[in-house]
Write a structure and sequence with these properties.
The complex is a heterotetramer, with two copies of chain A (about 375 residues) and two copies of chain B (about 375 residues). Chain A has three domains: about 110 residues, Orthogonal Bundle (Butyryl-Coa Dehydrogenase, subunit A, domain 1); about 90 residues, Beta Barrel (Butyryl-CoA Dehydrogenase, subunit A, domain 2), CATH 2.40.110.10; about 140 residues, Up-down Bundle (Butyryl-CoA Dehydrogenase, subunit A, domain 3), CATH 1.20.140. In chain A, helix 4 crosses helix 7, helix 4 packs antiparallel against helix 8 and helix 8 packs antiparallel against helix 9. Chain A starts with 6 loop residues before the first helix and ends in a 5-residue tail after the last helix. Chain A has about 375 residues and is an alpha+beta fold. Chain A is globular and about 75 Å long. Chain A contains eleven helices and nine strands. In chain B, about 55% of the residues are buried. Chain B is globular. In chain B, strands 1-4-5-8 form a four-stranded mixed β-sheet. A four-stranded antiparallel β-sheet of chain B has the order 2-3-7-6, with no helix packed on it. Chain B is built from twelve helices and ten strands. The chains are: A alpha+beta (about 375), B alpha+beta (about 375). Chains in contact: A-B, A-C, A-D, B-C, B-D, C-D. The interface between B and C is large, with 46 and 45 residues.
Chain lengths: ~375, ~375, ~375, ~375
């Protein structure tokens, strides 16, 4: 179903669609195994378009927009298999903007001159985002962070927003890439991007505060990350199925267009329904939540559903393509691989459901 | 579920909640089957007197003319208090159709009794040989002078045995090609001579449905809605409305509550494997509510969801079945009990709603038919 | 796929098929709300055919047959919606035959003159069959049982095989229906049969021993019950889908036989596959396990799969029938209702999987 | 899994187990992709020298002539030790076809090298325009004198780039109706002039498949198997065998092991919600093993499972995908890593087997085609 957008939102979506027209499967292939695995110039371009500072309040020189606008852009990023970490950069920017005085990195993060990304995960499964094992200690202005963060999208990053436990609970800390005691080790992923383990040993850090009115900064950033990934997964699903429906309309077997076979039609409808349901969910959440205080249960719900359905849908797309879908040459496999990566980040579907049980009060 | 009420909305919600708590008889709460008219209609009249019977109808026709948010609040509060399912054929189906297609005289005759609850309507579409393939219906209406003579057989007619009026699709041109072009939309007084109604007992033990036999029933020509042979278009114009109605997340929310109560009673609520399925179900209910809000939003802004309402029908009906399967699981050894189960958390009916939920993917266009519709009309897949 | 049967087994199956030809949906309807909800004469007839003593060793005047034969008969019982509790009677008989001298009830249980049924369940979910809350105490020859058994198929029963905890673990006890301290309260089920709560207060009981070579009698009877229910559920699935496939071959919509629609064909194939898989599983277990020492993990596996798939298959059968399948007049709904009952007995699919995790050593 | 070995069988199992432990190189164990011939064939030769390369072949052709139970034991022990998947086109496909349909000269020429592992075979069936619709294949073989001249294009040919011989379906009568009646079964020397092989890289990164181009390739007429235009029957006679082979529960058992290892490493093994899914998966693997035993039993007693082998193919292939989805879940944050993950319990490959498993519902007749076959030939549903 169409979204009911304002004319400004429509303009924004069209501008994002134009941006991704220069991305797509071919470009994503080109970045496989490159360092960094994206074009820094394109990240700066997205900064110039205002996207990285989209959620940052006017008062901190951002656009002061909401989740609907973020979702519109990230949906397009997902569609285009965009390699530049626009979503992670944009949500980090809003975190950097929360203090009474914004963090010094904010301006460069908003223009794309620097890349700051969240580093919130520690285990492969079952993290409690509000109880990191990583510790932060020391006086204000002389903080030190020690611990290990995993699955960090550190490729090309200049700094990290690290969750760490202090005496009174979790805090969000900024750690520079080149800080002493900060080391990275990277692993290649199936979609050609990298995930890193970030080891911190007495690394100097700045506290990234939360607004008084908002929830804890770690929770706020975590929920925003879940939402952003859900919107991007939505875009991945959309484009994968469009490619597939197009194929069903032209491929012939048994003398007929395969899209005329009822069994394939119904499978196509099944994936379409999943995508529509996720789109409604994402945009309802967007319309009713402030970016830095998203209801944690809804954030978990969106990421659970997006992670599960994106894998299901992109797998079904390969099945509907038949043999050709299984070749590396064909683009459709790239959507499955991107879905594998995004689904796994910040907790997969099962992990989100486990959190949801606790935070949605299901068993109360 | 997503929204935070604006101050005026919050006030409205509290008013609705307090009024419902005070006025809905306890015996009508949390019912899994629709109570018979003798029990249900007094509640209909109460709502009607309060002016809340038709939130979505314009004020000129006696509705509330409520905003979208007010309608949603109303739905949520009705679900919250466990209100019974009202007869909707009048309020949601023929009412809107008459507003769009009927003459002023027809509107004046039929709309007020719907608001008042002085008549009950039923929908005469399906026939034994025309279920999924509705266009092949064969109930004949022959124009003789200023009357139609109706002969034929309708089936799966909800509440026909309690109804005063039927809006029916009848064949007025047996030769027409395509067959849809020979169908008209007729209002039939159920008290007319020549009508026989036979209730159908369902596997869930209720009598929601009937068969209706027409043996040369005389219907005044003035009961035709719209033009002769134009019934198919009229019926389909508001099919989206019907699908939206049956996909109201109210039913899913009530099912979720029933699961939680049963799971507490059987003890399975503490099993993380069950919790995982409950979480998945609850997340899907949230998604259904989002789809529904989205569709209502589009409908209210005059962008009809059109064939995309089929998506909500498929998603909502299959989710309702999945929820009832989870209910059966939560009930454990009680799954097959044919009465409500008395527990420390109140009575919970298990087998009845489970069996009832079998119907939702069959009636109002089966899931298979809906998928065909979406494949052709939304995805433009080839024929 | 066909089973590879001996000629004796084929004869047995045919004889069971003949027996159920006089049962079926119409007869099952007739027993709704009757007391008892079956024909005692038919139970005796099945005794005369040797079925109730089928698993009882030759030495105790039984037929000394195995699980394959039991499954062949119960598969037919499931197909015919047979109301006589043949399976429960037959597995109780083998339990009564285990001691050095058979229990006095054995002979009447084998002929169908008396009905003895297991009473092993206590909760709606999550029972550990080897740790009943019901207690047995006292000297040999003067045992007393106290506790509550639930979901007992007590309709028409003369006695019960009750699991109860003694000092050294669970024991199987025989309690007569008319024993002092023994009371029943019955609930009607959707398929017209009854389930009872059996309250025991210092009820006199006999110990029903296990052979030295076998596992504990409670465990043995429990596993056998799971197997027997699985075989009966298999029969329910088989017949329900046969009725459905027949309907697909004659019902027309849109001017075509509905069985020619690919989407319905594929749905039909899906339920057929489930049924075939269950049949192979049931008969592989049958061919490789002794009746009174079935591998508990395999028994749980069969019941888990049968319980889940029988509900799925019979629900799909109603869907494939469309509106007519939803009426009480049509037979297909009776198969769903029987599946609801049998699936729930002795632990539903989820409960069996939970047990399976523990006993199959999955997490070791 | 169900059986308890008879004493002689238990002895045989111990012999197999000890021998495999002693002789299978560690580097070949637990591999998710099939190693290239240079790595794999020495192991093939070792098995061959031991006499165990073809348990199911009769002794007269150099097989083991093993009993059904011995074959099952062999399969289970190969799975247990994590043995790599052998090239099966010779052993399981063309071997049995030759035994049934070939001349003595053809058997003498081709069977011994398969046993010895001195040649590798590939299967030339699919074409770019003839995947699911195999009967529409268009690779032409024209008889000119005592040779066929072959021109055309095969695709999805497993290991073509490593193969010495191909057994191919070729069109020998372009006019035949039905089209199946114009197809012949031909053995083609892959070293013939005019053959070009282009490996296809898959989404899993392996090179299991190739495209093969035939540009007027000369094939002696003596390489025809069976009669001219009778190839369709020959290929189909043993399709059941192929489907059985690809549904061997060995793959599912190995997948289950991989899940358990990964789940221990990620810690999710203690989560009851995960355990519940693992139990369901494990129960389905047990059911697959039962289906497989059942089918092998029928095959061995000369009651070919026929089109019902499609059932095993559907069940086995879809289960393998479900298992790999559970693997991805168990891997949590590691799901997208493109290398094996080093854990305290050994290395586990996650993304590669997950991606590889995409193929099993496509190749050898897609799940959709198999369902059509079952609907028509087993369930006799109307056309």
């Amino acid at each position: 179903m169409d979204l009911h957008l304002t004319s400004e939102q429509t303009l924004l979506r069209d501008s994002a669609a134009k941006f991704i027209a220069a991305a797509g499967p071919k470009v994503a292939r080109g970045f496989r195994g490159q360092a960094p695995g994206f074009a820094p110039a394109r990240l700066r371009e997205s900064g110039e378009l205002g996207w990285l500072g989209m959620l940052v309040p006017d008062s901190a020189n951002g656009l002061g927009l909401g989740l609907t606008e973020l979702a519109l852009v990230l949906e397009q990023a997902g569609r285009g298999l965009v390699c530049e970490p626009i979503g992670l950069a944009a949500i980090s920017a809003v975190a950097l903007a929360q203090g009474r005085t914004p963090h010094p990195m904010l301006e460069r993060a908003m223009t794309g001159a620097a890349l700051v990304v969240p580093a919130l995960q520690e285990g492969a499964f079952g993290d409690d985002p509000l109880a990191p094992r990583t510790q932060v200690a020391g006086e204000s202005g002389a903080l030190r962070v020690t611990g290990t963060k995993t699955f960090v999208c550190a490729d090309g990053a200049d700094g990290f927003l690290v969750s760490a436990s202090a005496r009174d609970g979790p805090e969000l800390c900024y750690v520079a890439r080149n800080a002493p005691g900060c080391t990275l080790s990277a692993t290649q992923t199936v979609d050609g991007r990298k995930l890193s383990t970030l080891s911190l040993k007495d690394a100097p850090a700045d506290l990234v505060p939360s607004r008084q009115s908002s929830r804890n900064a770690v929770d706020a950033l975590h929920n925003l990350a879940l939402f952003a990934l859900s919107a991007e997964l939505l875009g991945v699903m959309e484009k994968a199925q469009e490619i597939t429906f197009d194929y069903l309309r032209i491929r012939k077997q048994f003398g007929k267009l395969i899209g005329s076979f009822q069994a394939l039609q119904h499978k196509a409808v099944d994936i379409y329904i999943k995508t529509e349901a996720l789109r409604s969910l994402v945009f309802q959440i967007a319309a009713n939540n402030d970016p830095y205080r998203i209801d944690p249960a809804l954030a978990a719900a969106a990421k659970a559903k997006a992670s599960e359905d994106a894998l299901t849908v992109t797998q079904a797309c390969i099945q509907l393509h038949g043999g050709i879908g299984f070749t590396d040459e064909h683009d459709i496999g790239l959507y499955l691989k991107r879905a594998m990566l995004l689904s796994s980040l910040f907790g997969n579907a099962a992990a989100q459901r486990r959190r949801y049980v606790a935070i949605a009060g299901l068993t109360a | 579920m997503f929204r935070h009420d604006a101050p005026a909305e919050a006030e409205f919600r509290m008013e609705v909640r307090a009024w419902l708590e005070a006025n809905l008889p306890p015996a009508l709460r949390g019912r899994t089957t629709r109570p018979p008219p003798a029990e249900l209609m007094p509640w209909y009249h109460t709502l009607s007197r309060k002016g809340w019977i038709a939130p979505h109808w314009p004020r000129q026709y006696g509705g509330m003319g409520a905003t979208l948010n007010e309608q949603i609040i109303m739905t949520e509060e009705l679900a919250r208090v466990g209100a019974p399912h009202l007869p909707v054929q009048g309020l949601n189906h023929i009412g809107p159709i008459l507003m769009e297609f009927a003459t002023e005289a027809q509107k004046a005759q039929h709309l007020p009794p719907i608001i008042e609850g002085s008549v009950i309507w039923c929908q005469g579409y399906s026939e034994p040989g025309a279920g999924s393939d509705l266009a092949s219906l064969s109930t004949r209406a022959t124009l003789e002078g200023d009357c139609f003579v109706v002969k034929g057989h309708k089936i799966w007619t909800t509440w026909a045995h309690y109804s005063d009026w039927m809006f029916a699709l009848v064949r007025t041109d047996p030769q027409a090609q395509p067959r849809q072009a020979g169908i008209s939309f007729l209002l039939i007084d159920m008290h007319s001579p020549g009508i026989t109604v036979r209730p159908i007992k369902t596997i869930a033990g209720d009598d929601e449905f009937s068969e209706v036999f027409f043996d040369d029933v005389i219907v005044p020509a003035g009961n035709l809605v719209g033009k002769l042979h134009d019934g198919w278009r009229i019926a389909n114009a508001l099919l989206g409305h019907e699908r939206l109605g049956t996909s109201n997340p109210q039913f899913a929310l009530m099912a979720l509550d029933r699961i939680k109560t049963m799971a507490r009673a059987s003890g399975v609520i503490v099993d993380p494997a069950f919790q995982d399925r409950l979480a998945a179900a609850s997340i899907n209910v949230t998604a259904l509510a989002a789809l529904f809000s989205h569709a209502v939003e589009l409908t209210n802004s005059e962008q009809s969801p059109g064939p995309e309402s089929s998506i909500i029908k498929i998603f909502g009906s299959e989710l309702l079945q999945a929820l009832n399967e989870l209910l059966i699981e939560a009930a454990g050894g009680h799954a097959a009990a044919d009465r409500p189960i008395a527990t420390d958390f109140g009575e919970v009916d298990v087998a009845t709603p489970f069996l009832q939920a079998r119907r939702v993917t069959i009636y109002g266009g089966s899931s298979e038919i809906q998928r065909n519709v979406v494949a052709r009309r939304v995805l433009n897949l080839p024929n």
